Amino acid sequence: MDDLDSRLLSALHRDARASLSELAELLGVTRTTVRSRLQRLKQSGEIVGFTVLTRRDVAQSPVRGLMMLEIEGRGTERIMARIAAMRQVRAVHSTNGSWDLIAEIGTETLAELDEVLFQIRRIEGVTRSETNLLLSTRKGRY
Known about the structure:
The protein has six helices and four strands.
């Protein structure tokens, strides 16, 4: 991947719906170059898909936390699916080390966060948890 590929990916991170013409103008290359670069990035697996962000995806929840979970036995997939279906859960990650899962949670109030934590702790198979509140966030640049 060269500098042009990196700049193309950055442009797509900002606006994945940009037209070939818009991308070509922004990058100072032809539409054909943009099209062939996109095709090559998809074929190589560098671009694995496209998605849509909704208002809910980008809305900041005032209270955010990470909940680390230890799961008993082989119930990780079942528990992961159940937690991911909760409205307040932004993402669930499987991991290695001491914890089996990490849930990213966002709520409007501490009381709502507390209720979500209790709901998750009551799920059969969750044996231990630890939660950390997120105080500030700095996002990396693409």
